[in-house]
Amino acid sequence: MFDTKHFPGAKKYWHMGEIYDWDTTQVHVMSHVVHYGSSAFEGIRAYETERGPAIFRLDDHIERLFHSAKSINMAVPFTKAEIMEACKLILRENRLRSAYVRPNLFFGYGNLGLTPKACPVELTIGCWEWGAYLGTEGLQRGVHVLLLPWKRIHPSQIDASVKLGGLYVQSNIFATCARKLGFDEAVFLNLEDRISEGPGENIVIVKNGVVTTNDKSESVLEGITRTTILKLAEDLGYRTDIAPITVEDFLHAEEAFFTGTAAEITPITRVTDSRDKSVPKEDWETYLISGGKPGRITLQLAQLYGEVVRGRHLEYDHWLTYVYDSVEEAEAALNGELTKERVGISQY
After folding, report:
1. Which of 70, 117, 151, 163 is catalytic?
2. Alpha helices, DSSP H only, in 222-336?
3. CB–CB of 31/120 below 8 Å?
4. pLDDT in tens, 257-271
5. Do 34 and 48 fall into the same domain?
6. How many structural domains is the chain composed of?
7. Mean pLDDT computed over every residue of the chain
8. N or C: which end of the chain has fewer CB within 10 A?
9. CA 331, CA 49: separation in Å to the nearest integer?
10. In terms of pTM, does the model score above 0.85?
């Protein structure tokens, strides 16, 4: 039995067109992905709305999944439409009102050379209930981050716009490092010694009333939540800018926050500077942002974002993919009143 302590609500997953119990094992220990991290993945959220669960910007996520797969020479064995339908299907199977959805393309069992010439491309999609990535308190009060001396992978080395499993080893190492030292999250610099991003989040600052984030040339993944926030900020009447963020800009910003599918909109309220490796931890300097509490614009954007993803603004409804065909079907399914056949669970 696999413990689902960290995957609440997970009962089933989708693999290569079939539904399996969560306990079913699919991947051989000699699969290419296990040894080399040869995977492309997405993190997607579905939110509860008045019309049942809706997946936020699903088409954009699946478009990026194909982009990532192309960068690692993967021939995706399904169409974009089929994968989108499978994401809806697994939410129906698990009867979840809101969830984190994880499609994962990977090279499976074949050969174990660096080039996966005999390894099939496989696709698995799972979903489960996942709350605030950096904690509910972090969403409400802001987080304390560690400004690292280590540099983010540079776009001269690999395309920064792709989500590949192997690339996240760096995120794993330094997110863990920051937490072991007592911080909520880490922040990377790029090779130019400017602000890059968090291990799994983009960074947005407010300075002189302008909502600013950085470009992919600054060693960042151009996140889907990031582009959403830029659009929402413009619609609220704020000026936005995409430009390099210096360390000085960051440390002395009027407001700062993370954006990401998992992190959503998480205020950054304290930054500890560990860039100089010769300085002992007890002498690291800490800076308060927005007086050590979430800023007004940050909270306004977070509130609007939370309403948009839950279907409360019709002008953004095109960003939502509803899991059920009607309110009535959603209510019946989520209340256990529909058979599997009627909600399409037994079919792909």
Report:
1. 163
2. 224-235, 247-251, 296-309, 327-334
3. no
4. 999 999 999 999 999
5. yes
6. 2
7. 95
8. N
9. 11
10. yes
